[in-house]
Amino acid sequence: MTEPRLAVVAGGLGVIGHAVAEHLASREGWKVVSVSRRKAPSGGRVRHLQVDLLDAASTKAALSGLGKPSHLFFASLMRAGPQEQVELHVEMLRNFVNGAQATSGLRRVLLYEGAMYYGSYLGPFKTPAIESDPRVLPPNFYYAMEDWLHAEAAGKSWDAVVLRPDLVCTSGYADGHGFNIALLIAVYATICKELGVPLRYPGSATAYRSLAQVTDAAHLARASEWAALRAPAGEAFNVANGDFFR
What we know:
Blueprint: E1 5-10, H1 15-25, E2 30-36, E3 47-50, H2 56-64, E4 71-74, H3 82-101, E5 108-112, H4 141-153, E6 159-165, E7 167-169, H5 181-195, H6 205-209, E8 214-216, H7 217-229, E9 236-239
Parallel strand pairs: 1-2, 1-4, 2-3, 4-5, 5-6, 6-9, 7-8
Helix pairs in contact: 1-7, 2-3, 3-4
């Protein structure tokens, strides 16, 4: 019998990480461990480890104790200033990958990026954005992580794939995350109802006239399994639901 693949999901309590971990755990042939700085509720199908990825020694010790991780999914996120964000994320990714590859079972690393890759934080950008679009002015922590990951994978027995979702939302688990727009809309609607005021659009006129799209966390989780097993090595892929709305 083939030994199950061992997936380790960094940022396993986030909107992306939790969805990926739960999806893989529901699929045959996977064992799943999630890691994060926070302590997870007990129970469930996914084993959770409380690990600070900024601590290289404890990260290596935690991952080496799992056996031989075969697939890594990096969905950790820390808020900081632009340059500090670069340094923090590269350090977390480096510690995560180095801790796992020390066990010599690693096959593939998946890195999650997003619309910031295309310069959304600088203002309007060309759409549709495609994976080959040129980079914008740094600092950008996605660029730094991607460059480090591809350089580290060169000549190794494992490879890397990048996924770029749009705004990720979920109707499921989203504990303490303001990034989940579905939850924010629900809270806003609840407040309006309680106050007895109309559900008015709270944004700008420009945003009201613009087309938007999102990436459902469950859809991204399914795409992540595909990327882990069948995507061409070294490539990046946009992942969105494919429908548009205002």
